Amino acid sequence: MIIVHHLENSRSLRILWLLEELGLDYDIRLYRRDPQTMAAPDSLKAIHPLGKAPIISDGELVIAESGAIIEYLLDRYDDGRLRPGSGQPLLDYRYWLHFAEGSLMPLLVMKLIFTRMPENPMPFFVRPVARGLSSKVQEIFLTPRLLPQLALINDTLAQRPWFTGEQLSGADIQMSFPLQAASSRADLSDYPHIGRFLSRVSEQPAYQRALARGGKLTPLG
């Protein structure tokens, strides 16, 4: 039996969605965030030294990192429906699978950090400095890097409903979380195809079943 060590309101919802798409039986071990810091509990470190979700156990195997888990589950349990077999679709699958956490998510995490920076407790005379630093980092570094990525994603989804073509794949499942996070942290009205993609995601029966089992997703923002 596969066990998903599921941190509430986190990337691990993607793994529940994939398991539902694959029609696999699994158990959930739910971990609650600290209500003050929103950090994962230390008990996750008993499963994996870094204590970060998602983590799955499958028999004696313990696997962490969303992309590694997706690849493992597709290698072992997929019949070819959720990963293209060859050619450009397979290359697109690999690109977007790694793009999600390698390119897009780091910028979104930095945006969250610098957006929240002026709100953190600090001496009153430091707050204007923090506000100015936050604004400049976003203006000079984050926004010029984030906008081209959003444009690329939007242009890709203008050509096809899913990242590899006409069929849902593991790459779409991987990309769902950063795009949900982006939609909670930025105005995406200039990127209508991203919005349509997120609507398609929310309409998937397997995604709805994952939400029912794992709880509502509200990306921190």
TrEMBL record:
Gene3D superfamilies: 1.20.1050.10, Glutaredoxin
Domain GST C-terminal per the UniProt entry, residue ranges: 86-220
Residue span(s) of domain GST N-terminal: 1-81
Enzyme class: transferase
Catalytic activity: RX + glutathione = an S-substituted glutathione + a halide anion + H(+)
GO MF annotation terms: glutathione transferase activity; peroxidase activity
UniProt EC number: 2.5.1.18
Official protein name in the record: glutathione transferase
